[in-house]
Every structure is written in C-alpha cells, then in structure tokens.
Amino acid sequence: MRPPTQMPRPPRRSSNRGRIILVVVLVAAFLLVTSLRGIAGVYTDYLWFDALELGEVWTGVVGAQIILATIFVSLFFVLMFANLWVADRLAPRFRPTGPEEELLERYHDVVGPRANLVRAGISLVFALIAGAGTASQWNSWILFRNRVDFGVDDPQFGMDVGFYVFQLPFLSFLTSWLFAAFIIILIVTAAAHYVNGGIRVQISGERVTPQVKAHLSVLLGILALVRAAGYWLDRYELNFSTRGHVDGAGYTDVNAQLPAIQLLLLISLFAAALFLYNIRRRGWVLPVVAVGLWAFVSIVMAGIYPAFIQRFQVDPAESTREAPYIERNMEATRQAMGIDDVEVRDFAYQPTLDAEDIQNNQDIIRNIRLLDPTIVNDTFQRLQADFGFYRFNDLDVDRYMIDGELTQVVVGARELNPDGIPIDSWEGQTLAYTHGYGPVVAPSNAIDASGRPSFVVGEVPIEGDANIGREITQPQIYFGEQLSGYSIVNTDRREIDYEVNTPEGEDEEAAVVEYTGDNGVQVGSWLRRAAFALRFADYNPLISDYIRSDSQILYIRDVRERLETVAPFIHFDADPYAVVIDGGVSFVVDGYTTTDRYPYAQRADREQLQPGSGLDHDFNYVRNSVKAVVNGYDGEVTLYVVDDEDPLVRAYRQAFPGLFADMDEMPDGLEDNLRYPEDLFTIQTNMFGRYHLTEVAEFYSQSQAWDVAQDPGIRVGEGDTSNITTETGEVTGRTREDRIEPYYLLMRLPEEEEQSFVMLRSFVPISQNDQRKELRAFMVAESDPDDYGRLVTYVTPGTDVDGPGIVNANIVANEVIAPQISLLNREGSEVLLGDLILVPIEDSILYVRPLYTQASGQTQVPELRHVIVASGERIVMEDSLQEALEELFPGSSPETLEDPEFVEGEETEGEGEEPAEGEGEEGEGEGETGGETDPEVEATVESLLTEANDLLEEADAALRDGSLAEYERLVNEARDRIAEAIAIRDGEGEDDAGGGGATTTTSAPPPDST
After folding, report:
1. What Å distances lie between residue 491 and 499, 551, 557, CA to CA?
2. For 122-146, what is each residue's pLDDT tens digit?
3. Where are the chain's structural domains?
C-alpha cells in the first residue's frame, strides 16, 4: 500500500475564471472600439458648442436627457427589483406537487444560489428597455420645469393655457409610462410567483396562495389608481378633440364624452378599492367584477353613447348644437395664429387709372419689381459667379438706400460650390477652397440694355459697396446655405480667395487669404485630430502635415443646420436671406415657437409652405419669436428675441439664458433689413381666409369665406386646371390649383403717406371647384421697424375686380399677346413668366408681369424681353415697364430704373455673349387691348391672327416630320400675318386715338438642327 503522499491525485479542474475574464475583456474591447465614433461625436459636439460659447445649451439638453433616463431607469429598476424580492420572500416553503414541479425544481437548483444576481439582471434589462427611451421627452421636461402663464384661460375648464402647453404633456407622458411600467411589473411578478410555487395552474384546490393574491391585488390597485389619474388628465385632452365641425371640445365631447370619462375615473377608484379589499377575501370575484364593470363602461359609455349622440343629436342640427363651440374655436384660432389684431380696411376699387395717378405715384412705380428671384438666379450665376467654385443658392428680395432713395433690390450671396472646386483632392476640397466671396445686389426694377439685371454691388474682387452705403471689408463667406462637409483653416496651405485674370500665356494666379475668426474648433492637438478623423470617417485630419497648432476646423456650415443644432426647440423658416452688415455678409433666419396644445385652436393649414420649412408639422399656435443671425464669416450665432411676450420663448429663455439676446443688442442697420417671415405669412393667410369671419352662422356656411388666389405659374398655361372628363364624356371633378405665394413689395399703401416694405397675398372667394377667381381682398404685412408685424387687409366692395387668375387668363388669351408668346416659346427658346404682381395705386389696381426668354439647352441665361401691364380690362405688352405704362396712360411719363437703351429698344448683347436662340429678328406687335375699334377692322385682325395660329400649328407638324424648309416657310408666313394684323390695328389706333402702337421685338426661333 502506497503512502498517502504517493497516492495519485485527482486531476485538478481547470478554473473557468481566467476564461471568463478573457471573454469580459474581449467584449469590453469590442464595445469600446465600436463605440469610438459615437464617443468622438459626443466629444466633438461639445467642442463645437464650446467654441460658440454656448456650452450651456449642450449641457442643458444632454443633461436633461441623462437626468430623465437616469430617473426612469432607476425608478423602474427599484420597482421591479422590490417586487421580485417580495415574490421570493412570499414563496411557499412547501410547494404542492404537480406536473410542472420537476422542471421548476431544476430552475431553483440553478438560480437559487444566484437569486440576487438574477433579480438584478432581470430588473436592469427591463429598466433599460422601459427607461432609456424617456430621454426623448427632454423638451417636455424643460418646458415643464420652466412653466410660464399665458394669461388666457380655456373656456371649458378655466385652466390657464400654460397648463396645457407646459404641464399637461409631461403629466400625460408620466401617467402613461407608469401604467405601462406597472403592467410589465405585474406580469413579471406573476411569473416569479409561478416559478416560486405561489401560483399553480395544473393542480386541484387553491391555485394561488393568499400571500400572492395580496401582492397581486396591491399591484392591480396601483394600476387602477394610475389609470384614474390618466382619466383625470384625459378630461383636459378633450380640448384638442377633432370630432366636431372644428377642433376643440364640441357638443358631443362636453355632453357625452366628458361624463363618460368622469364615470370611468370613479370606476377606476372603485376598482382600486375593490382590489385592496380583496386582500381579505377569498377568490377573485371582486377583481373580476371591477374589471368587467370598467370594460362595460369603456365600451358603452365612452364609445357607443358618444357616437349615438353625435349621429342622432348633433349631425341633424350641427349648426345649432355646435355654435357655442365654433365660437370658441374662432376666438382661440385667431389668438393662436396671431390674426386677432388684423386691421381691415375697405378698398373702394375704381376700374381705371389715368396718367395723373401714375405721375402722383412715381415712388410706387419706381419700385415695381421686374426681377423674379426664382427666374434670374441662373442669370446671377452666369454673370456674377465668375468662377466655377462659386454659386448662388438662393436670391432674396430686400431694400437698401441707393442714391439717397430707398430701393427694392434682389440680393444673392456668392457661396462656395464644392462640386466646382478645380482641385479634386482632400487638400483642395478642405484646405484650399474654403469659402465663398461677397454679395451681389441688383435693384429689382433696374434693367440694363440687354434686359439683364443692373448690378450695383458685385464682381470679384468686390465693387460697388458704396452704392448701398455699407462698406464691405470682409467679403469671405465660410457659412451659407446648403453647405455641407468641413474645412480646416489657419493651415500651412494658403486659402484661395479668388483667381486673378492674367495675360494670355502666363500662369494663372490666385489671391490668397487667411481666416481670422475664432469660432472654429481648435484642432491642433493629436487627440482632437483623432476625434475628428473618427467623426468624419476620414483619416486625413490625423495625418496632414498642413495642420498647425492654431488650426481651426469649421463644420456644420449650413446656416439652418447650424441653427437647428444650437436651438433644436426652435423651428426655422425655409428661406435664410443674406444681409450686408458689419463689413460682411450675415444670414438672417426667422425662428418660430409652436405648439399643438392651445385649447380650441384649429390646426394650421400648411398648404403652399416652402419645401423644408420648419413649420411643416402639426401645430395650432405659432409666433415668430426669434430673428436668428449667422455671421457668414465666422459662423457666430445670435438669437434675437423679437416677441418677448411669447410664453414659449420666455420659458426657453429661462432654461437657456445665454442663448438669447434682446433686440437692442442688434447691430446698427440690421433692423432696417428685417423682413416679415414668408412661412408665417403663408400660414396666417391660409387661416385668415376662413377666420376673418366674425359671425358663427357665416363661418359655418362658409358663404363669405376666402381662399388664397390661384397661382398662374411661371410657364404659359401652368396655372390652369380643367375638369377631369371620363372616356364617356362625363365630368368627374376638377383639380385644385396651386395658390399664389406671398411676395415682397416696396410701396406706399392706400391711405398711407410713406413707403413701406410689405409682404402681400391676395384672396378670392372660396368655391367648391376652385372656379371663383375674382379678387375679394388682399393682405399685407409690414416689415419696417416702426410698424413691424402690423397686418392690414383691404377688402374690395364687390365681385367685379379681376383676380390674378383672371388677369393671367386674359393675358394668355389676348389676341395680340398670345401669338407673340407662341412665337417666343417655340423650339430653341422658352418663355418664363415672372410673378404676377398686384400693385395698389390710389383706388385702383395695376397688375405687372415680366416676361423672360431663355435659350433651350444647358446654358440658360433668362433675359427680360417684355413687360405685361394690366389695368381694368386693358392689357399691354411692351419692351419695358416704362413703355407699357406710357402706352396704357399716354402722357404719364413714368420713372423707372430701366436702361434708356433698353426702353428705346436699341438692344445690345452683353460683351462676349451670344444671342439666345430665337432672338434677333425684329417684328412688330401691338400690346394693347380694349378701346373702341371698327368692327370690320377687328374682324380682319382676328382672321389674320387665326391664320397665323393655324400656320404655326402646321409648322410644328412639319418640324416633327423632319421638313425644315417647310417649317421655316410656314413660320415666316405666320410672322407676316401677325405683322399685317398689328399694322392694321396700329392704323386703326392712329385714326381713333391719334397715337402710335407699341412695338414688340419677336422672331421665329430656328428649328433644332438635330
């Protein structure tokens, strides 16, 4: 027998601890690596806010998210862990035998020693699921903590509107979360009791122990109390009902739904009492009765009964039953949309103007806008971009002092075009070409001899800044519209400011510049370079030798994205506009505070909002509370509070005091360039068409309601709609036309003595098939500092005033103008029609519409060719506004800013430019209609024009068949017929009126040689 020391030892079991540690380390390393980019994003976000000295915003928003997630995760964890702990403590010592006992026995053998760890793990998993998402409620939490009273009580419950805006959303979220949390806890707790043996399903006798029944009864009682709190809040939610004729609590809500909710509240309290009382009783009869009663009342009283009342009491007499609630909606909507203080004036329309009226209103005539920003953007790009790495993203209408006169202008910023950078490398895209250069300004009524804008500020390097009285010392534009990516400045690679023209044969030169701002993020350290390399998934910032210790990185360069990052709780206008201020270019963006929690207010009608508008979401209250300014050079962001009476902006200002500034801190001169916001005015005019009515009966019938006037479009026939006809010839409907967009005007309003910069939109009577197009009213919004925000509506007396749709139809159907447009709109060129501008003068209305032509193809430079003017039933189309007014009102001697050569018809092409296809041959055309003519002459003219139209149609057919010679012959014959018709009418006009007819340059475009 061996001694004990020599006895063989059993093999030592390999310890699993090392493997576990290795697995944990590997998992942690994997999570760290996969999270590095997210960590870098958070870190660089903080650096970005800190560089703008807005760290409090970042910490405020992120802090609110962390606080909410921590509170709710912790709360759920504690509740779940406590209930699981109680479930374990209430487990019976002796479990009755049953079919499932063997399986549960194995579970206890495995889990028993690790009970606390299992409870904690289960609680943590469910807590993370239930609590992490609550971080998204950060905005509701901030408003809840910074509540401000509106000073207005809702008419149903007498609560201040601030309760609905600031408190009710978060309280409703809280009750909903608690109800869902306790349902999850109830289910998991019941499962814990099952595995502990307190609940047995497959045995005879008592299946639930008294202790378990007591525990579950308490949880059910808590659920009933939470639901009762929810019902209490649901009463207030009725103020946002959409059941009735308008939004807000209506007859059915107040007289049926509200009593049902109150009854459900009482039943929930009664059920809670039954659940708690059931602790002392055997069985589950009382809980079943409570749940059954609650289900019955929910279905019958809260569902069937209100539907019955609505169908059989309200619908047959809706106008009477809903009248007091409609009145509530009318008042609340006008307050919430800011249209409760609109000044309404009668406009005593007279159908004719005369030469004396034109002479007495030269200030209005001088600023009639001929440049359409949408159309002439291509012209600005062709004539002023100068280099491919510049572009004009958008043009805007504004006003500046030019030659001592306040003048309406079109303004564009020459921004960086990343797609046009000639050096296709990281160095070129990021270090060399970093910015745009300077503004371009053209008076909106100034046309040069070629029909193109007459620029007063432009060129590279910048010229003409003295013309607007604003010195430009820092023309570089590092931040703009639609500018993505990032740039690194203050590097050893010099930045290209612009290219310098050099004599032929010599190497090109470039002017260079170095950024002197301090709002970029310092990127000199290796840690920061690595963080940005991760953020942008680009290793170049980490390895580039050009980056110095003082280098800065500029990112989030799009002005709207920049503002939305700084103030995510503010909604921004779709149209930032460039302003020359403080020696450079800044972008002004209107900021809105909105909510959908204003009791009884109607949800906003968002039709015709600009694409990308911050107001394109559901809301029933809006204020233009902020004017945001982004410095185009250094990206500094300032939010100026323009409506300090708005409770929402006051609440946000309490939360983030360093983010906002007062209006008196605005730079000198900037207030003179503020504009009433387009998106807000669009919403207000959409709503005012119905809510200008003050009588409930009229509002209900909509017989006197207005609609925004139809948009005629920029191409001939674009604004027209027609009935939809089936194959059998039956009319099945009519397509609704787009509505006219608001536009800015510098003008003197009726009954006013001084000019003002206003936004205008017109109204027509509302009609079922969009057939009514006569002008019923027009609204203006003031932008000048003294009267900023004043809304005035001018109402016409009857139905005999032509609206924009009628005027446009008359233009395209005019027997003289229509053939000329057809000739210009043939192959090789295209006609574009600018805004149809309504200009009130004295007690009448002048309609003005510029007509542009552009060559077909890739190189498009729209040029103003004609101006169409309508007054009453008279319409003329001439080569210039001055000629058109002189033709309509002989002896008026209108003063415009058009080039004399352009007015006289001595048109010259711009230097180095080829004339567009379809231009160059002169024909004659008469632009005026109306007046007395010889019937025989009129018939002859009409016959000639009909022949011309038929010939043009034949020419089109010949061109499609490939017969170019026949096409040219027919077009020439058509032109001869038109010239003959005009000559006859001119002769008639001379006989009748002693005056010559207007001359219009037209030509037949050459066919496409391909």
Report:
1. 20, 6, 19
2. 999 999 999 989 999 999 999 999 9
3. 21-45+486-556, 52-198, 209-313, 566-681, 920-1010
